[in-house]
Each structure stands twice: as C-alpha cells, then as structure tokens.
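A protein record pairs a chain with a discrete description of its three-dimensional fold. The shape at a given residue is found from the number at the same position. Here is what such a record looks like in full:
>
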Amino acid sequence: MTELLIRLFVRDYRNTEQPQVRERYGKFAGIVGIVSNLLLFAMKAITGLVTGSISIIADAVNNLSDSASSVITLVGFKLSGKPADEEHPYGHARIEYISGLIVSFLILLLGVQLLQESINKIITPEETVFNPAAVLVLVLSCLIKAWQSFFYRKVGRRISSPTIEATAADSRSDVISTLAVLLGLIISRLTSFNLDGYMGVAVALLILWTGVKVVKETSDPLLGIAPSSETVDDIYRTILSYEGILGLHDLNVHMYGEGRTFASVHCEVDANEDVMASHDLVDNIERDFLRDKNIHLVIHMDPVVTDDEPTNRLREQIREMLTGISPEITMHDFRVVWGKTHSNVLFDVCVPFGFRYTDSALLDEIANGLYMLGKNYVPVVTVDHSYVPDNREKEA
C-alpha cells in the first residue's frame, strides 16, 4: 500500500537524489501525517470525552501534536528546497533539521503537560465509563499508527531524512502508548481498579523519552557530525582509483543537509611529474565527484619525493617509530631539508580525538624518538586531529 501511494502521489519517485523529488517525498509525508493524525485526534477526543478517560484524551492530544509536527515537517521541506542565495551560499537544506528540532520541543512540551494532568488524575481520581466502542477506536488507532511508522520509516530511509525517521520513531512510541491506554482500560474494567491516571503518566513519560531522543537526533547534524564510514571509504576508494594519486590525507567532509556535501582532501602526487599534468588530474577528480556523487570536492595537491633513498629510508624509520608510540598515529606531508650541521625533518601526524597523549606530550615522545635515530635531526612536527571515523593514511 505504501509503495502504491508513493507511485501515485510522488512524481518521478525513483530519482531520490534529485532535490525536487526529495522535496515531493517530504511534502507527501507531511500531508499523510496531517490527515491521518487529525482523524485519530477526532476519534480519540470524542471517545475520551464520552468515557471521561484522561489517558484517552491525552492520547488524542498526542495525535494532535503529531498533526502539528507534520505541518512543521511540510513547511520545513518546502523551505529547505529553496536554492542557495547570497546570504546562504550553502543552501537551505538544514532548515529540515531546524523543523525537526521544533517538533521535538513540541513533543517535550506536550509530555510535561500530560504528565501534570495525569498526576492530578491520580491524586483526585474520576470514574471512567467503559465503552466497547472505545476499545475498537484504540485498536484501530494502533493499526493506523503501526502503518504510519512503516510509511515514515520507508520514506525516511529512501530520502535519508532524519526528520522523517524521527517521526517514524514517534509513531512507534504512539503505538506503545495507545496499547498502554487500551490495557489500562481493560484492566480497570476487569478489576474495578482505576488505572487511568497511571496509564496517563506512562504515556506522558513515553512522550518525554521520545522528545529527548528526537532532540538529539535532529540537533546532531546542526552541531556537525562526522561522515559515515561508508562515505569516507567511498571517497578514499574513488580517489585512489585514479592513476597518479599516491596517497591522500586530511579529509574533511561538511554536510549542509541532504545533497549539500562539501569536502576537502590532500592528495599526494609524484614530485617529478609535470605540475600541469598533476593539476589537470585533480581538476578531473573534482569534476567527477560533483557529477557522479554530488559532492563539492576541493583537492590540495601535495608533491611527494619518491626517488631519494635517504629520505625514503628515514620516512620508514620514523613511521616505525610512530607505530611504536601508538598504532593510531599516522604521518603525512613528510620532507627533509638536509644540511651539513643539522637536518630539519618536517611532517604532520594525525591522531584521533580522545588520544591518550596530549599534543605536547606526543611531540616530546617524537622528539626523543627522532633523537635516537640521529642526533642532528631537528623535528618540525604538526599534530592534526582526524575529522573522519578512520584516520589511517591512505596509499594507492
């Protein structure tokens, strides 16, 4: 059914890499959420008022907030599809994350209000009226919410939308909360013990937990997160497939929303190659990335001396020395300025965040190790920190 609806209402639904198609998916998901949640709200609100059940009314208000969230999602996708302009040269795709953050705050506000009302219902309980129609409404609600969860998850994964995937998680929580209300209604009927207020508290706590989870999921991309290992490996593998690239390092990936990825990397080339030929090579790589992967890539070209035996030998000795300090350390931009009285050894080392050595302590270890290799070596070392999941130096 979900696939049929997508084919009917999302034009050109297969090309999810296109921003226009992605926007259509988002708008469609928003409209589905508005209609279905308003329907659930009306059903539960009427049932809750007839039975006098605070937990059913709480569940109805929860669905009303879901409908409001769908409106925000709809508006967010509309705004995020705006093209880049002078004020926002990286586009507006991150508005989607902001809309998700607004949704999460609404969820938290709702949870606090429902928790307060449910506690009041426990302190001053009111008799609820059991109605078979209420059971039917709650069962139907569970089925609709379960379908919503499946629908949102499918759409969210297809277009890689954290906002819609967060909505899928919210729908799953709604299924559990409605089941809790249904269970409380049945137990109250069988035992004459009024569980309505307690089930309202359970629903409110579940809503709060969902809100906190959604806050984290939608705020992380705004703060800036590391790219996935799959993305990093794909970039490494693709660049190293070009003849003439000896290695690469210092990869940085910045994501300004789905389809708005910017990256920079240092690529090592043979210093003996013609500089114009090497420049043409990196230009081709940059164009290919934009065309094939929709990644705006900027490459810094690092010439590497490959035919100087003393330099090559010292490079390998230092690499072994660094591995002895920690296998997590990698080295790049290595060069030596040979002299009669001393030789300057210049290179960068890259370490992960949370590395056991401070930068100054690591530099001391490297200086001591280099002194053991030769008393006339003067280290000129820069410590970098990796911005991708795997900081190992990549070589062809």
